[in-house]
Amino acid sequence: MKILFLLFPLILLLAQGAAGEREEGKWGNCWKQRGFCTRRICPRGTSFAGRCSPGLACCKR
Question: So what CATH class is 2-60?
Fold first, then answer.
């Protein structure tokens, strides 16, 4: 039972690290281009720069 108290923080740290990698991998390219992610269509006054994920477009001003 005491081992659960040691494993729980370790699992939380691993989950937090995995979330950071995902964010950098998909959205990092858009942010490096100084763009932003939006749903499907870029707003007026912006241009399409790529894809953040299957349902999100990367737009630049």
Answer: alpha beta
DSSP 16-61: HHHHHHHHHHHHHHHHHTTEEEEESSPPTT-EEEEEEETTEEEEE-
How much is the pTM?
0.54
Domain ranges for the chain: 2-60
Q: Residue 43: which residues within 8 A CB-CB, separation 6 or more?
A: 59
Residue pLDDT, tens place only, 5-60: 777 777 777 666 544 444 445 668 888 889 999 988 999 999 999 998 888 999 99
